[in-house]
């Protein structure tokens, strides 16, 4: 079983760092700050940072070094529009990747039968209640990332309305841990209300962490301190 999934099931609230770039130093910074897991990326342009990530073969050396350098679970977004393949997922599994995360509308059906890596899918702002009901019934979905904010709201403060929407999703997806990414400019003080809403993990990215070693470590440490106090 995915180590991240085990963590989400055992802790009140967990912390994931979505790396601003595939970097050994930034992965180390996240772990030093207290992250429960880190997430890397392949074959996409990141919506928030604008950084372009290469193919598995291009990113393999740094991914292998990240896996050797940290003891926390390492996950990956294996692609967006370009998708992935059964062969690529098998290779990621052999490398030691703990979980994969893709937007649900790009996720191939064979991800549902992935045998060992945790399967996280990201929903966008076009979901509805009946859709969530269907998603909750799929045994091949382990975790759901609630990436529901439209791009024009990126970087804005978290609001009561946002938290209510996350709470509704968590209630509808009672069998799946919900992860909230920092599309909004999440602050450590937001951790308590997100936990009360039923969120199981906060995934902080460049909008909350910055992009340097010091910024990533400090951001992770500040979130960790609040999460541990809950």
Arrangement of strands in the largest sheet: 1-2-5-6-7-8-9-10
CATH homologous superfamily?
Aldolase class I
Biggest sheet, in brief?
Answer: 8 strands, parallel, barrel
What general form does the structure show? globular
Determine the mean pLDDT.
95
Q: What is the annotated CATH architecture?
A: Alpha-Beta Barrel
Number of helices: 9
What is the domain tally?
1
E-strand count: 10
CATH topology: TIM Barrel
Tell me roughly what share of residues is in helical segments.
Answer: 40-55%
Low-confidence stretches: none
CATH first level: which class?
Alpha Beta
Q: Separation of termini?
A: 26 Å
Taken as a percent bin, the fraction of beta residues is 15-25%
Order of helices and strands: HEHEEEHEHEEHEHEHEHH
Rg from C-alpha positions? 16 Å
Structural class assignment: alpha/beta
Description:
By secondary structure, this protein is of the alpha/beta class. The protein has a single domain (3-229), classed as Aldolase class I (TIM Barrel, Alpha-Beta Barrel). Helix content is 40%, strand content 18%. The protein has helices at residues 3-10, 24-33, 56-69, 86-95, 129-137, 160-172, 190-196, 206-209, 213-229; strands spanning 14-18, 37-41, 44-45, 52-53, 74-77, 99-103, 118-123, 143-146, 178-181, 201-204. Strands 1-2-5-6-7-8-9-10 form an eight-stranded parallel beta barrel, surrounded by six helices. A two-stranded antiparallel sheet has the order 3-4. Helix 2 (24-33) runs parallel beside helix 9. The longest helix is centred in the last third of the chain and has 17 residues, at 213-229. The radius of gyration is 16 Å and the shape is globular. The two termini are 26 Å apart. 42% of the residues are buried.
């Amino acid at each position: 079983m995915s180590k991240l999934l085990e963590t989400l099931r055992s802790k009140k609230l967990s912390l994931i760092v979505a790396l601003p770039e595939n970097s050994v130093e930034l992965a180390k910074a996240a772990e030093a700050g207290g992250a429960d897991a880190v997430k890397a990326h392949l074959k996409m342009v990141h919506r928030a940072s604008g950084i372009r990530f290469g193919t598995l073969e291009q990113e393999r050396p740094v991914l292998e070094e990240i896996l050797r350098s940290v003891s926390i679970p390492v996950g990956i977004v294996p692609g967006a529009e370009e998708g992935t393949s059964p062969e690529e997922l098998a290779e990621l599994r052999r490398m030691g990747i703990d979980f994969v995360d893709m937007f649900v509308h790009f996720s191939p059906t064979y991800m549902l039968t992935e045998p060992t890596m945790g399967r996280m899918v990201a929903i966008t702002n076009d979901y509805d209640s009946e859709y969530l009901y269907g998603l909750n019934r799929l045994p091949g979905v382990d975790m759901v990332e609630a990436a529901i904010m439209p791009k024009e709201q990126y970087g804005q403060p978290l609001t009561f309305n946002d938290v209510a929407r996350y709470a509704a999703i968590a209630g509808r997806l009672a069998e799946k841990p919900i992860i909230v990414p920092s599309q909004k400019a999440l602050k450590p003080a937001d951790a308590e209300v997100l936990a009360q809403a039923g969120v199981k993990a906060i995934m902080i990215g460049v909008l909350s962490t910055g992009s340097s070693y010091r910024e990533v470590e400090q951001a992770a440490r500040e979130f960790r301190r609040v999460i541990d106090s809950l």
